[in-house]
Amino acid sequence: VTGSNAVGSGTGVLNNAVSPLNTTLASGSYYLQDNTRGNGIFTYNANNRTSLPGTLVSNTTNAFTATTNKAAVDAHYYAGKTYDYYKSTFNRNSYNGSGAIIKSTVHYSSNYNNAFWNGSQMVYGDGDGTTFIPLSGGLDVVAHELTHAVTSTESNLIYQNESGALNEAISDIFGTVVEFKYQADKADYLIGEDIYTPNTSGDALRSMANPALNGDPDYYGNRYTGTGDNGGVHTNSGIINKAAYLIAAGGTHHSVSVTGIGVDKLGAIFYRANTVYLTSSSTFSQARAALVQSASDLYGSTSAATTTVKNAFTAVGVN
Ligand SMILES: CCC(=O)Oc1c(C)cccc1C(=O)O
Ligand SMILES: [Ca+2]
Ligand SMILES: [Ca+2]
Ligand SMILES: [Zn+2]
């Protein structure tokens, strides 16, 4: 909408206080339209139907506290945080580097246990209340989805088999790196923990530290070779996620010891690989080479970081 920039507040999915919330005032109503980031962040409501994008979320006041708006408040705010991560860390202006409008839709369909980037926008279900609560309530989830958009404009990793698992892992990695940056007090190497199984504590959709907790592989020799889930993109991502965990936090896996270098360097190395070296058909082995080269470019060929990347991939059986 055409209006004036405003700064409001709101309540999120977990009844978390959200502030500041960048909104637009137009004709006496406030809209979840943030004009301060790139060409804007726009958050919509699908009203439990499946036509997109739905209706731009509005409120009579600049306090978005109504229950019906909690998913939208988090989707909007967390998209802004993810924008801020890419802009402040890599000077990347939105997912395409040129300020592309960021669109999110919440309340998609009914009892929808999914979130996705549809090639043009982010889409969030409300969950069925048992497996998931509204999925935009997790910062790692929102950053995961927006990172799919970054990947699509960079390496454009094909969403199947090894390139698809790399695509998925890159989204999990940046979901986690963004969580460490903006939710340091509760950051972890779990994915979706805030919105997964409200009746069970301590679990998550995936674990980077221990993929096996969810039955996902953490070693190349144990990869899934079937056709389900586009060739196991959310399963074999565990191999790359484990390597990423070892790169950041360190550890010993399959008798290979890795010295951790922290999440900031993890993000820098994967960002350079995704923007400079990876291609749409990259395999795990080619990703190892891309990441070693990226670490070498950034920190030196004999640096601790480069050694750590090599050891982490050896630890998960990727050479
Ligand atoms: C961490 C976010 C995530 O994995 O979202 C998905 C869900 C919940 C179901 C199916 C696909 C995705 C995805 O974005 O890959
Ligand atoms: Ca997490
Ligand atoms: Ca849970
Ligand atoms: Zn994904």
Automatic annotation (TrEMBL):
The active site is at 145, 234 (proton donor). GO terms for biological process: proteolysis. Residues 155-318 form the Peptidase M4 C-terminal domain. Its EC number is 3.4.24.-. The keyword ATP-binding does not apply. Its cofactor is Zn(2+). Keywords: Calcium, Hydrolase, Metal-binding, Metalloprotease, Protease, Secreted, Signal, Zinc. The keyword Ligase does not apply. It is found in: Secreted. It is an enzyme of class 3 (hydrolase). Residues 8-152 form the Peptidase M4 domain. Signal peptide: none annotated. GO terms for molecular function: metal ion binding; metalloendopeptidase activity. GO terms for cellular component: extracellular region. Extracellular zinc metalloprotease. Belongs to the peptidase M4 family. This is Neutral metalloproteinase. It comes from Peribacillus psychrosaccharolyticus (Bacillus psychrosaccharolyticus). The lineage of its organism: Bacteria, Bacillati, Bacillota, Bacilli, Bacillales. The chain holds residues 224 to 542 of 542 of the full protein.
